[in-house]
């Protein structure tokens, strides 16, 4: 069976204020029902977790953890791990200091820290359409504006749509690889 591609979203939409939290909480609350399959979020079925093994591992780690181990893993992260990552970069010919590496507790924390570092309230941020709801929540919390740009399932984000966009953009970065749900890759030529 061949599935149809989804219809393309609007080329560019401008959202003066991002307001997503109420809707997201309703969807997440509904997904707690056993009869629901939560396509709205990337939470695996808890029955898939090896809980006994996880509990043993947690018990073992908690026996050796010190009070300082809780704080030393906050950003910028564990110094030993940052040094190991810097060494791996060096093996690939890149000179990266451990001080330039920040370890986070996941992609959303990394996104929040990045947005805080390079934006100010009221700034515009380009987002894919569709966009991960956690990114929209981060924009809302930081009082940022979303410029939603169409994403093609094969080609990725439509860069030509940015040329005539309704907002002046000052940023120079774009995360356009391994997107969900499309998994389109933006070719370097584009």
Automatic annotation (TrEMBL):
Domain of life per record: Bacteria
UniProt-listed PANTHER family: AMINOTRANSFERASE, GNTR FAMILY REGULATORY PROTEIN
Regions of biased composition (Basic and acidic residues) lie at 177-190
Q: Is the Transferase keyword given for this protein?
A: yes
Keywords for this entry?
A: Aminotransferase, Pyridoxal phosphate, Transferase
Which Gene3D superfamilies does the protein's record reference? Type I PLP-dependent aspartate aminotransferase-like (Major domain)
What cofactor does this chain's UniProt record say it requires? Answer: pyridoxal 5'-phosphate
What is the species of this protein? Klebsiella pneumoniae
One GO term in the molecular function aspect is: transaminase activity
Q: Where is the segment annotated Disordered? A: 170-190
**InterPro entries in the record:** Class-I_PLP-dep_aminotransf, PyrdxlP-dep_Trfase, PyrdxlP-dep_Trfase_major
Q: What is this protein called?
A: GntR family transcriptional regulator
GO terms under biological process: alpha-amino acid metabolic process
């Amino acid at each position: 069976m061949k599935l149809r591609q989804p219809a393309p979203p609007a080329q560019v939409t401008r959202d003066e204020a991002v307001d997503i939290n109420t809707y997201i909480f309703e969807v997440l609350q509904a997904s707690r029902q056993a009869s629901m399959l939560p396509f709205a979020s990337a939470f695996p079925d808890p029955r898939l977790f090896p809980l006994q093994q996880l509990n043993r591992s947690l018990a073992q780690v908690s026996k050796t953890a010190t009070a300082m181990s809780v704080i030393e893993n906050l950003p910028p992260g564990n110094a030993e791990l940052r040094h190991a990552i810097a060494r791996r970069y060096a093996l690939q010919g890149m000179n990266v200091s451990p001080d330039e590496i920040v370890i986070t507790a996941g992609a959303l924390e990394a996104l929040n820290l990045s947005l805080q570092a390079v934006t100010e309230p009221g700034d515009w941020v380009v987002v894919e359409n569709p966009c991960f709801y956690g990114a929209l929540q981060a924009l809302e919390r930081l009082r940022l504006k979303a410029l939603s740009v169409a994403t093609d399932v094969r080609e990725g984000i439509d860069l030509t749509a940015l040329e005539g966009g309704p907002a002046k953009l000052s940023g120079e970065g774009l995360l356009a690889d391994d997107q969900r749900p499309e998994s389109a890759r933006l070719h370097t030529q584009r």
